[in-house]
Each structure stands twice: as C-alpha cells, then as structure tokens.
Amino acid sequence: MISVLTALEKEVTACINCGFCEAVCPTLPASDYRASMGARGRINLAKEFLEEVSRSGRSKLSVGDAFNSCLSCYACLQVCPAGVNAGRASDYMKQVIASGQLLEKRQEHPIARMIVELTLRYRDPLGLGDKCADWANGIEFDNDSTTILYTGHMYQLMAYNKKLRELLNGNMELMRIGSSLITRAPALAKIMRGLYDKEVKDKMEKYLRNVVTLLKAAGIKFRYLGVDEPYPGTLLLDMGYVNEFANYARQVTDLFHEKGVKRIIVIDPHTYDILINEYPKYVPSFDFEVVHYLDLLGSLQFKSLGDSVTYHEPCHLKRRMNYDKPLELLSKVGQVKMPRHNGKNTMCCGGPDEAFYPRVSNNVAVLRFKELKETSASKIVTACPICFVNLDMDGSVVDISQVLVDSLMNQAPR
Amino acid sequence: MIYMPIIDELRKAVGDNHVLTTREDMLPYMRDASYFIGEEPIAVVLPGSTEELSRVVKACYANEVSMYVRGGGTSLTGSSVPMRGGVVISMNRFDKILETSIPDRYVVAEAGVRLDTLNAYLSKFNYFYPPDPASSLAATVGGSLSTNAGGLRGVMYGATKEWVLGMEVVLPTGEVAQFGGRVLKRSIGYDLTALMIGSEGTLGIITKATLKIAPIPRRIGRILVYYESIDAAGRAVAKLKEAGIIPYIAEFMDRISMEAAKKGKGVDYPQEANYMLIIDIASTEESLQKDLESAAEVLKSTSPMSLRITTDPAEMERIYLARKGLYSSLLMERTAPGEKVIIGDIVVPSTEVPATLLDIDNAIRNYGFKVSLFGHIGDGNIHLNIFADTSKENEMRRVSSFLLETGMIAVRHGGSVSAEHGIGLEKKQLLVEEFKARGTLVNLELMRQIKKVFDPKNLLNRGKLFD
Known about the structure:
Strand order of the largest sheet of chain A: 5-4-6-7
Number of strands of chain B: 18
Number of strands of chain A: 7
Structural class of chain A: alpha/beta
Structural class of chain B: alpha+beta
Oligomer: heterodimer
Largest sheet of chain B: 7 strands, antiparallel
Mean pLDDT of chain B: 94
C-alpha cells in the first residue's frame, strides 16, 4: 500500500488544477457535470485523501463512486499540461478501495466481490463456464497448433452484461443483495447462464466466427481452448484487486503452458492490452507471443465496398496500444470519415461503467454516438465488443470483422 | 443565516440531484486554476435552465446568501473560488449551441459551452469565433466573457469585448435581463452588454451569449524571427503595424520558454538566440507568399539574428501547439514538488514594448526569481511566468511585491496590470494601485456604485475585483 500511496502522490502533486482534463473527461457531462465525477475532481479528492491519511492514518472521505466510475480511458492524460494521468490516479485509488485499508468505510462497488469470487472460482466474471465456448460449436480447429485463438470471453460476456443491466437498471441495492448472495453461494451464479440478450448473443457469436473465417482465409493455423479457455482477469485489475489479479494471471499463464501454447491470437482490445502490458509485469514466466488477429490478414485482398464508414477507435487499442491496423484496413474497404474526437483524442464509449454505473455509461455512449452520427457515414465500425454493445443504438453499428468478411466476399455491409 | 431552508429551496428550484452538499462533492468547487483555495460552500447548485437559475438566485437573494458563479473553473486569479457561507453556482449544464446565422454573422451559445467545442462546431461552416485564450479547451463562453479573455489572435481580432453582440443575464435579484441582441451594432444608450464583459460574475450571471463570428482565413503563413536583444525583439510589431501589416498572431518567447518548448514539444531554435517571435500572416492563396515576403522585409529592419518563413501545415501546427502549450512545457521545468508557475499579465502599447521589456528584465534581476517571459506581443501583452513555491509565505510575499512592481512598470509605460486574466482575488491590490498611479481612483468609485445598482446586497461573487 505504501508504494500505491507514493505513486498516487507523485501523480497528483504535479496537478495545477487547470481544468483541461475535466473538459475531456466523458463521465463529467454524463453525470450532469458533478465535478467529483470528472477527472479534475478525482485529483482533488485524491489530494484530500492523501492529506487526511498523512494527518490521521485514515480518510473519512466517501470516494467510492468518484473513483469506481472512472472509465480509465486516459483521455485526461492526452491534454494535461503537467502530464498528470487522472485515470492512473483513479487506478491507484481503486486499489485503495479494494484493499479496504486507509478508508473508514468500505467503498467497493456492490458487485465487485462477486466478480472477484466468480473469476477466481470459475475463470469467468459471471461464472458462465462452458457457455463461452458455444460459439465455436461445429468449427474445426487445428488441434496440433501451438497457436491459440483467445477470445478472453469478452464478446461472449456482452449478451449477459446487457441482460443484467436491463434487469438491475442501476439499482445499487439489488446489485448489493444479488452480489452478496452469489459471493456466499457461488453455485447460484448458474442462474446467470440463462440471462442473456439473444440478439446480442447471436451477433457476438457471428463476429467470433467471422474472425475464424478471416484467419482461415489468410491461411493461419490455430486451435481454440474451448471450455478450458479462461477469462484473462481484466476486471480484477480494473477494479484494483491487484493481488488477486497477480495470482489469477499466474494460473492462466500456467494453464497456457500446460496446453503447450506458444502464440496467442487476441481479438478484443482489453485482452490485447492486458496480455501485452500487464501480464509480463505480474508473471515473469509469461513468455508467449501475443498478436492481434488483424495483423495476420496481410495476405487477404479486401475489396472496396463503395460505402462510407466512421471508425470508433477503442481507448485500449488507440491510446494504450497506439494500434491503427483497423483504420488501415477500413481505408481499403471504404471511405473513412473520422469523428471530431479521434486518434489519441478518441472518446470513450462508456463501456467500462456499463455494469457498475449504467446511467453514466449510457450517457457517455449517447454523447459518443451523436458524434459518430454527425460524420454522416453509413456505418459505425467498432473493433471492440464493449464499444459495440454500448454504441449499438440504431442498427448502424457493426464490428470490423463483419466489414472485412463482407469486403472479402465483396458484398454490401450487413 | 439559516442554511437548511435555503438548501430545501435550492432543491425545489433545480431538483435534488442538482444540489450537492457532501464534502466530497463540494471539494472540487473550492478551487479554480489559480493558487487560491476557497472555503467550503453551503452547497453547490447545478441549474440546467434560465428558469432554474432565476429561482436559485431569487432564493439566495431572499435569504441573503452569497453566490459564486463558475464555468470551466479556469480562472488564473481566483475569480471562481467561493468564500465561506456561499453557494457555488455551476453553469456547466448550460452546454448547448442554440442558434447560428452565417449571413448575420452570429452564433448563440450557452454560457457553459467550451470555446474549443464552439469552434469545432463553427469550423463546419468555415467560420470561427476569434478569441482564443490558451485555456480554450476548458474555458467556457460565460467565463471568457466575464474576464474579457484575449488570446493569440488578439492582435488581429481584439479581445472578447469586440465579439459579443448580446447576452441573457440573470441579475443578482433573480430577474432575467436581455442585453444587446442579434444585430452587429446598435446605439440605444448605455451599453449594458459591454458593462458585463470583464465584470467577473459580480454584476450578473450570463446564461447565453450572442457572439459575432468571422470567416476562417483562407491561408496562413508563418515567420519565425530570432533575436539576441530584448529591445530589438520588442520593436518588431510596431514596425509591422507602421508598415500597415497587422499580424494574425504575434507571439514572443524568451530563452527559457524556447528551451521548454524544445524539451517539451521538440521545437528547436538557433542556439545563439535569446528571444523569438512567431508572426503569422493571414492572406489568400494567391497573395500569401507576397504578403509573407513583405512582412519579412519589415522584420529584417529590426536586426534579427535570423528569420525563416514557413507555410508547411504540419510544422506550423507543431509550433502553434508548442506555443499554446508553453505553460505546460514550463511546468515540466519545475524543480521542486511545491513549485508552481504564477503568471503575471501586463499589457502596454506596442510602441512601449521595447522599453517595458528592458525594465521588466531589470526587475527580474533585482528579485532573483526564475521568470520566463512569453506572450502576445502583438497587442503588447507580456506574461511573466514566475517559478515560486506557493506553500512558502515569504516567497509568496516577494511574488506579490514583484507582481506589483512589474504591474507598475506597465502602468508607467501607459499600460495596465491585467491584460486578459482579469483581477479576481490576485490583482485586487494591483487594480487599486493602477488607478492611483493614473490618478483615476474615481473609476473605482464608479465601479462600486455600479455594483451597488446591480447588486445592492453585494451577494454575487463577493470579495472579487474590489472591496
């Protein structure tokens, strides 16, 4: 905890309170401009927290919502004159919150412990188990390959997230009760296996099959771990459960080694980011090659679809990975019109808050959706399942895998 | 004063969700971009419409509760910080652009619209709203009007006051007033629109403004000019203006700022140079090269060490961002954790710039502060960026003394202690000293009387501008 406090202090001391971060923080307008829900406000609270801890060893502040709602999109970092990353400050505070130390009241989000429990027990944050492998039924993989296609459960989770969000409707008390029950009796998580949005499930499974189609067309050999595939543990780290994440990441790494894995093909930005940037920090034996599936399609001839698209750049792909392959491929397929916030200044879709603060998440999504529609492009293309589900408001949103498959078959985008 | 009834009234006015009373929620509102820390308010209110705001203000007026208005919270002088026992009114929810008329050359924007957002919108029409303070990413329409914000384009376009046609204001009594309107000119007695500009939230709360807009120049080219001596650099703009050339921007940087821009943004400079100017010339496609060459000829007569013309968009963008982000580059030069950069903001007529810079240079030597000079030399505005530890009382006393001395240097040269940042808390004493030095203390008395007319109970942004 000392190192977290030291790192937090270093981050917040540099702040000059100019307000630039606040101007680009998506959760600020999404929460009706409540300053504690914006980047600058979070830094102010972190400073006050540090002062209280240094005075009396603990802080009385109630800061759970302020920091738990941070999307960690790092938009703030792009504009801060002093190089302060309010998102990283939020990450440190989430660790403080998760540890239960230094704050007088426990301030974890109601569903946090449930997610931790289910991830550690079932290797999936909702305990979905073998449901995450349904999409691959009937597909033949190259079972001798040392390359795996790793979904990280991200596409699959979206259908269940959406349903839960509808059912819970941001009701914190309901979340607390349900989460508490399941944490105590994890077997109850079985209930969630039947709670999904069918339309989203069908779409997500189609997009995963698209990825297989594209990779096979490019001549790539790979296998899929199926029901043995574990979730990478992204939420553990995102919520600040660093020790739990470290242990879990070691287990995932060991599993990959046991399965003879040498190369991992990833599909979604969060998994890509965590395997490249975080796993090696926590697990020294993580020595696999990690590659995004779009990087393996060089041999494919994509034809122009004669249409205009706008591309929503996911935070984890663009800001964290500086990865532009989707844009490069889309430029071959159609006219690309970028929204006002693009490149390193891309705007978050609100996705990371969808389960925790659905109203804020939805408000962020609406802001971003409006901006994307203002380009007047026919389609909005995403390269992240979380972005897809959050922005899919009028049927004009499509995953990049679909656009590429259509281009390969030279069809109008579906 | 009884607090609870006022909070109930505020909740009735704007809804429970838009009245913040917990310490955690109110903490961020106690500070702005200055080094001043305000006091905990009774509540923070976030109205979403003129009607809601009017109800809030009426409730505060009836209960004699002071009010502190806040836009982007980007004031550098403490203008937005609350004092004890007050209510903070945040105008952030007023974030819509309401109406645009290109033929009539105006846009109507609510007070909470950020300036960059406004210009991103107007760029679709190839128009823009010229005032461009360095804080334009975060600064709002209401706040920028309240301080008569300037910026890099001030040399060609003037400050905010040249670009405001009208506004809607909620007066301290809660009454809603409309000043000015949609026409480019009118002559109907006292100009109440102009009176509001620079009033820093002490006369009324702006809810929306009708702003004049201009076409985006077709082409812009840049001349980078490097100097050894400060007075040679200071002569450049006056020479250009004498030749009938008004730059689009005319910026000045000293060696400390050039070095910071090089380290922070990779913008290099000749090693022997002590000062540089960035002179932009706006023109048409056909005339740009000729206009740049004419300006370069004039600048050569000021004996620069070297001079370079560029029209490369990527290079120009890099330099523009380096200049606009100069404050941030300077921040990276801080050597101690508690060190901040405090900004002085003087202005003098262009012809007085060389002599003023020499006097400022002497003052810097006398005080021994590390000070970087950069600014909008085009309209005689120099920013003194003083590296100081704001937690050390002695040091801050010396900073105040230095700000006073350099402010008076500006006044002696026919200028002012505050070009564009306003007065707020920081420059209250400087304001008095400026009027004293000019023998115009009557101005202060007139301001006090005007304040009494608008705000007889002195509830709006109490303690700012003057006592």
